[in-house]
Amino acid sequence: MFQRQRQLPFGAKLQNHALNSRLNDEFRKFYPTVGKPPIVRDMATQRYWIQEDLLLVQIRHKDGRDETFNIAPAIIEIIDAYVAAKRAAFEGFLETCRKISALGKEDPKYAIEFVFEQLQPNVDARVFEIISYAVLKAKYGLETVWIGETKESIAEEVLVLYKTERTNANDSGIDFVMKPLGRFFQVTETIDANKYFLDIDKVQRFPITSVVKSTDTEDQIRAAIREQATVKYKIEAVVDSYMKAVEEVINVTDLIKAFDQVVNSGQLQAVMNEIVLQSKVEFNFNDEDEMEAGIEQNS
What whole-number distance in Å separates Cα of residue 257 and Cα of residue 138? Predict the structure, then answer.
């Protein structure tokens, strides 16, 4: 199964987290009485199989006759349709990015409007994370710090933001990392204290900056998190220890202000180039995929 999923479009770099636990956990949540997981894992060989009998559905006809159907072909059709829809949606998004990027060189207003549209609470989570990263990377790239191991070696260094993984990856909640300050960033579309604190615990309560897909102010977001934490933990000292680990909250308004700063500094094209690059990475899209798509369209 692991090999097969990597053969599918956008699957070349898929990890095994879903097969290890996530798929089985979701199945158990919706079908708690079945008593068996859909994915069987051999720990020794690190191989995966489907519980084939779960694909056999028994139907009773009106005349009392039972008939068994294998739903595997229907599932494959659904997967193929899903892949086609996702690919079409992504290719449309990527093509739009390219066109806007090219137009932006002549008339920046198209690129500016495009980025503003993506920095909204109703935007797809993956797109929001990509745009957020591109904007913040350019913003911090305008800032410097003085740092060194000794007084004599102190030097001015530009802040650099790195994207650690694809969106929704099993990466301990760390989406971006800043060098040389060592700041951690987490992108989220919810104001759920359980999720915030789970990620904070994974990094032993190291302070995390949260990039939130919300127009609520930082004070409102912090207040909502504290209220949930107080209900859960009851003890104020425990709540305070978690709240101290929320280093900064960056909301949609902050991202728009950062983008304005980047545009005024002449870095718009750098943002657009980064959006195209990270979109390709996110969907495992490379030059070979583009060549194949071009061949298919021309044939």
Answer: 12
Query: What Rg, from alpha-carbon coordinates, does the chain have?
Result: 23
Q: How far apart are CA 218 and CA 216, in angstroms?
A: 7
Burial profile 82-110: b = 16 or more Cβ within 10 angstroms, e = fewer: eeeeebeebeebbeebeebbeebeeeeeb
Task: Quick: pLDDT tens for 29-58.
Answer: 899 998 899 999 887 887 888 888 899 999
Best CA proximity match to 283, nearest among 119, 146, 111, 90:
90
What 3-state class would DSSP assign to 239?
Answer: helix
pLDDT at 203 over 60: yes
- Asked if 282 and 132 touch (Cβ cutoff 8 Å), the reply is no
> 44: how many CB neighbours lie within 10 A of its CB?
5
3 state DSSP class of 191:
coil
C-alpha 213/C-alpha 36 separation (Å) is: 37
Confidence band of 173 (pLDDT split at 50, 70, 90): low
**Side-chain-side CA neighbours of residue 111 (13 Å):** 29
- Here the tokens at position 208 are 């995390």
Q: Is the dihedral of CA 63, 64, 70, 73 positive or negative?
A: positive
The count of C-alpha atoms lying within 13 angstroms of the C-alpha of 60, restricted to the half-sphere facing its C-beta, is: 1
Mean pLDDT of the chain: 84
Domain ranges in the chain?
Answer: 2-70, 80-285
Kindly compute the dihedral angle of the four CA atoms of residues 104, 109, 113, 116, in this order, to the nearest 10 degrees: 90
C-alpha closest to that of 142 among 251, 259, 248, 273: 259
Mean pLDDT value across residues 21-29: 87
In angstroms, the CA 83 to CA 289 distance is 14
Task: Name the burial class of residue 173, with classes exposed (0-12), middle (13-18) and buried (19+) by CB atoms within 10 angstroms of its CB.
Answer: buried
